[in-house]
Amino acid sequence: MTGDSSRPSSAHAPHPAWLPDDAFAAIGSRRVVVAGDGALAGTVAEEVAAATARFGGSFSRLEVGDGVSDADLVLTLSPPVPTSGGPDESFRLTREAGAVVVQAACDAGLLHGFFHLVRLGDDAFDGPDTDETHAPATDLRMLDHWDNVDVHPTMGQVERGYSGGSIFYDDGVVHADLSRVERYARLLAAVGINRVAINNVNVHAREARLLTDDLGDVVRVAAVFRRWGIRVHLSVSFASPMTLGGLDTSDPLDQGVAHWWVRAAARAWDAIPDFGGFVVKADSEGQPGPFAYGRTHADGANMLAAAVEPYDGLVHWRAFVYDHKQDWRDRSTDRARAAYDHFRPLDGTFSDNVVLQVKYGPMDFQVREPLNPLLAAMPHTRVALELQVTQEYTGQQRHAVYLGPQWSQILGFRFWDSAGRAGGSPSVADLATGRGKAVEDPGTGTWRKPAGGFAAVSNVGDDEFWTGHPFAQANLYAYGRLCWDPTLDPGAVLDEWVGLTFPGAPDVVGQALHAVLDRSWETYELYTAPLGVGFMVRPGHHYGPDVDGYEYTPWGTYHFADRDGIGVDRTVGTGTGYAGQYPAPWSATYESPTSCPDELLLFFHHVPYTHVLHSGKTVVQHIYDTHFDGVERVEQMIAVWSEVSALMDPRVSERVSERLAEQLRSATEWRDQVNTYFFRKSGIPDERGRTIY
């Protein structure tokens, strides 16, 4: 079903983000040849034709790479090398005497090579001769949209969306005009994203029909993304055979249920030959799943996997499964344990086309969590690392918080090295991509991890700036770039984004934006929940401070602060045993408060307020100091921004200034509520005599 939803979503055309016209000047001012056939080669040719027409260069399109000796740039397809798995998205870049050739085995690689040149600008054609090959770290680089077709009465058009309405849907219908989706697909292609799930993992009745009655609308959306090398996936409800098919069960071992899914998959791939597959949230926060029938999650996932296997389809099965109706009085129940407890026993039982999608931390996208031990506990399962680009717990795109440094730390962490980043064992990125030999598994000897890839919750909406806060565009950009190469320096990626998004701006602008954003994740952590304890947010919408907000709820997100101390005992010796889910040496490191890193102390231990951290400060003084420091840092961010804001586009300047003012207000509220709470709990004054209420 479609409707007349072509009305503009804002007063202005969408901001070009990191693809303004001037980003194409280096290519557009030169003699360019695109040689070879294929749909994405055609997309590249259209981009080159537009750039050369705009900047005075010349463009030729050839079927083969003949007659190109006088070109400054040749983008050409070479004979493909047979490979297993997905298409070869790599490309080879050579430069000789300033002339550049990009060769790729398939047109997806040609598209990636083209956007690599866009990022380089004039540097692509300058410098010494070179011959280099670029390839993505993994074939699976995915974004999950939490968009609802209908406006949900509680969560709205986009669940956890902080950028306006959906770019796909408008109150019950798919937009008739998908031109904005086209612009979005182009942005994603430019940073290497190749898969998108277009509806909420919490699949409501209306959204479930995308798989059946409204599959024609998915066909339209998929056609837009296809031009940019991106495959579309759908989130599906495990109960669909009942809610859509009229069956009386969704038992994964029931033959009628299995046949319903076989027919549903056949219809999907018949309509969309490059359909990607299904995303499933089951037995989680009220969503139906196999537990209702006494079955395991492997039973459920494998039944779906069999249905999509003939089409090279995937099932992304989320591991976010926990009891959300806990008794807060019961300290033996620990939400952090849940994913490991549910899924570790199932390792080796999932089908090859099932990807277990695991959040980076055991709780829920907090500003600071230990890495999820399940990432290290599934040697025979394809595991995708799940991140959250939308800033649910990191300021909701009202605060300027660049998450690249957080993600880089996560990707580089090594579970089997005492320093976490020493390099002797596989990193989290290696475990997700299957790129490095993993550790010895006592049961089978050495193993090579099967690749699962990356997935994240998208942060765009129909806001003029895509992401509400113009600076939140940097997170979407960084996610794509780190998926392609997890070893990239997040500071350099930030500078890439600045240079592309604001081309021609004075150097002082780039320096200011780097200064505002580079340490902003650390700044947010300073003025919010301390020492890894997490949450302390207002229940429901999760914005702003509420120290006891979840302390007596069924959700299992507690800090256990009393007059004597704070923190959750997750040790094996005296607590919930969660620390024992880690391999050595981290299980021992987290078990003891003397070796546990300060930034995670309260996640693993209940300690007195007078406990002395490795920094030499007591816990309570650390809380006071960091919260005052965090507000001061936001004030410094505003001061830096004010020096260059007049040099920016007035609309960007106005939006950023408004958001920074809100960030300062919110940070001040965080500081005053958290400090007051712990002063009243502990009775210990601030040794520096600052105002605490």
Describe the structure in brief.
The chain has helices at residues 25-28, 39-55, 107-120, 179-190, 205-208, 215-226, 240-243, 255-271, 297-308, 338-343, 404-412, 428-433, 473-484, 490-501, 507-517, 520-527, 586-591, 601-604, 619-644, 650-682, and strands at 31-35, 58-62, 73-77, 91-96, 99-104, 130-134, 141-144, 147-152, 156-158, 195-197, 231-235, 277-280, 314-318, 354-359, 382-388, 437-441, 445-448, 451-457, 565-566, 607-608.
Biggest sheet statistics: 8 strands, parallel, barrel
Total strands: 20
Strand-pairing-aware structural class: alpha/beta
Distance between the termini: 56 Å
Q: CATH superfamily of the largest domain, please?
A: Glycosidases
Tally the helices: what do you get? Answer: 20
Oligomer: single chain
Mean pLDDT over the full residue set:
93
Q: Percent of residues in helical segments?
A: 25-40%
What is the CA-based Rg, rounded? 25 Å
Strand order of the largest sheet: 7-10-11-12-13-14-15-18
Extract low-pLDDT stretches.
1-10
Whole-number total of structural domains: 3
CATH architectural name of the largest domain: Alpha-Beta Barrel
CATH topology of the largest domain: TIM Barrel
Shape: globular
InterPro entries: A-glucoronidase_C_sf, GH, Glyco_hydro_67_C, Glyco_hydro_67_cat, Hex-like_dom2
Pfam family, one: Glyco_hydro_67M
Protein name: Alpha-glucuronidase
Keywords: Hydrolase
